[in-house]
Amino acid sequence: MASLSSASVSLVRTPTHLPCFRFLISSLQLSNHGKVQSLNRYSKTKTTHLSINSSLRMCSIAASDSPLSTSMYELSSKKVWIWTENSQVMTAAVERGWDTFIFSSQNQGLANEWSKIALIDPLFIKEGEIFDNAGERVATIFQVSTPSELKKLHPEAHHVGNVVIDLLDWQVIPAENIVAEFQGSKTTVFAVSKSPAEAQLFLEALEHGLGGVVLKVEDVKAVLDLKEYFNRRNEVHNRLSLTKATITQVHAVGMGDRVCVDLCSLMRPGEGLLVGSFARGLFLVHSECLESSYIASRPFRVNAGPVHAYVATPGGKTSYLSELKAGKEVMVVDQTGKMRTAIVGRVKIETRPLILIEAKIDANDQTIYSILLQTAETVALVCPHEGNRTQKTVIPVTSLKAGDEVLLRLQGGARHTGIEIKEFIVEN
């Protein structure tokens, strides 16, 4: 079955003389081997119907691995099947790694036609069941239109396989109920989704989400949008490379309009946003999750800097702090480079005294990295992480001095609408 975690390589048929063909064949052999094993498991499974029946002080916290949203980490294992009769949708899906397609039993001809164009796994619906090309049952479909029907839907301990649920009266709460009911079972539950937005809610319902979605669309953009969502969410499996930088100068510069970014997620010690005056180097600005004698903890907030500063957003992009607004996404990064996406809930811009902070990677480096932040004890930069030792996590900007070490994200300096480009640029 198609899975983002699969080692299979989905591709449009390629002439054998192309240089990459040998690699593709090797990958395909691995893929087919896994599919045969999978189908054998299905064939050995007895055909069974699922019955419709703490107070923390600033600068003294040990770096911690924050337990990020489970849905973020599990997204790479989610499966996507495509239900369509549109060849352009098929092509877009295959090019993005989704090769399992659902057809009605009368569409065998269309499945055969597409199989000549691309390497796909065709599945066929017949009398409430889904079969593979060899006639083996791989899933059962249940249509649910009333709350009473939903209540009858529950897993059986001895059932192993796939279940596809089609909510005819689509609502969010039923999606959550399905996740709760099947959590911990051996059944992989798919939900028929008629848009990327529906698919996203099924994949994230009650944090864990369903095991997969059946995207039933005739619009190429729906495939592109869902893949873009997967790409953004799968970024959390990677670690950003953060560099140790040494502070060279700290001094007050006067008043300016600074931005507080309030997220729809809670942050933990060591986490914050990547912000900088120049895109070539972004400082890890810590959240206000730590208690202090000055103000209560606000673990959803980062006092991020003035309106002109860059902030890291999903997809390797940047945005000006002044452009952020409710509903936009930013990258939350911790002391070890782990990252996740978070939704902006509110942005506050107020005039406050600012402090200019400059740093270098080493003494001989001619490149200066800088950031302006509000002069306040609750605003802090994150220190380098060294092993698992208990150590200082952050330094408030009011205590920052030349020689202190902080974390920096190095990247290309030239940007166009937040996207990194290769271009000559000088910024001071």
UniProtKB/TrEMBL annotation:
Q: Could you cite one Gene Ontology molecular function of this protein?
A: 3-dehydroquinate synthase activity
Q: Which InterPro entries match?
A: DHQS, DHQS/DOIS_N, DHQS_C
Which GO terms fall under biological process for this protein?
A: amino acid biosynthetic process; aromatic amino acid family biosynthetic process
Listed A to Z, the keywords are: Amino-acid biosynthesis, Aromatic amino acid biosynthesis
Q: Domain 3-dehydroquinate synthase C-terminal, which positions?
A: 245-428
Domain (3-dehydroquinate synthase N-terminal): give its ranges: 78-230
Q: What is this protein called?
A: 3-dehydroquinate synthase
* Organism (species): Gossypium harknessii
Q: What is the lineage of its organism?
A: Eukaryota, Viridiplantae, Streptophyta, Embryophyta, Tracheophyta
